[in-house]
Each structure stands twice: as structure tokens, then as C-alpha cells.
Structure prediction request, 199 residues.
Amino acid sequence: MSINKKPFMVSTLRDIHVGTAELICDKTKRTLKVSITQILWAYHARGFPIMTILMDGGFECIRNNLADMGISLNVASRKEHVPEVERFIRTVKKRVWSIAVSLPFKEYPRRLIAETVYNVVFWLNSFPHNDGIHATISPGTLFTGLAIDYQKHCKIGFGTYVHVHEEGDSSLRQRTSGTIALRPTGNDQGGHYFLSLHS
Prediction:
């Protein structure tokens, strides 16, 4: 998937409907191989062995690498797509667009675009999927075991201007800095990611 000419590796796991997205630097064979390997490790670490991967023709170059890992690659025909991931990509793009037009920024740095995508994927994984394997447990909870708590994870909206505490000394310098709220970390404490306006 590409947003503002920034490439992302996007995946979704059938039946569970948990999605992932990662900003990648380019679409070379080496980059695709590293990104797919990271996704496979994440699935495997959580007890989801992958035997077959459905992809479009752009991934044909890593067929042998996947075969070495015992995974078969099923490449979609020309002008054909994998329906589950195409629907997921369309949903992500529309939600990213709806967030972007609501923000008061004229320019979107690469990091902000990536974090907008990560925010959308985080929240898509946080609610039960209509076609999922469980009616009340979200794909994210099934995949990671962590549940979202409204009191901890829903207090700060994406794009909100927030002052965060910085370590101080005995001087009189400012002890907070301006940031933009990005998304919850998903941990039990209710931590969030922020984008510093000074970076």
C-alpha cells in the first residue's frame, strides 16, 4: 500500500482479521523479505503457524525465500488482488484520509503519516470484526492477549496537542514540551506515543 508515495507493508490474517502495517523504505526484494520475515515471526511467536501466503505479483521475487521457511506462496493472477487484504487496505486508506482532513496541518511529515496508519490499524484491531471468529473479543485481543480499557486507552485522541513531562534538574527551565498525541501503546498502564514538535 502507498500513502503520499510512502510504501507500507500491510498484512491481514484470515478468519481472525488482525491486521498489520509497517512503513518500509522501498519495494526491493531485500526490504520485502525482511518485512515479511518480521510479520511471520510475529504470527509464529503468538502461536499462529503460517503455511501459505496469498500475495500479488510484486512478491514473486521472494518465493524461494518463503519456500526455504516451509511456506508456499500463492500469487494472484494478473489484474487480480487478494480480497481480504485489498478490503483492509481500502478501509485503512479511507480512515487515514478522514483523520488527515480533520487535522489542522498543511504538511504531513513521513513520521506523522506512518503513525496515522499505525493508529488506524491499532483501532481496527481493537474491536470485534463482523466476520471474525469471536463475536465479542477483538482481533487484537485474540492476537496479543491485551484488551483495550476505555479509561486507560481512550483519553487522548489522535492529533491532540499535549504537553508531556521531561526530566528536569534544579534549573528554572521549562519541564514540559509540546507534542502531538499519536496512539495508545496498548500496554496495561495506558501509555501513549507522542510526536515531539521539537524533533
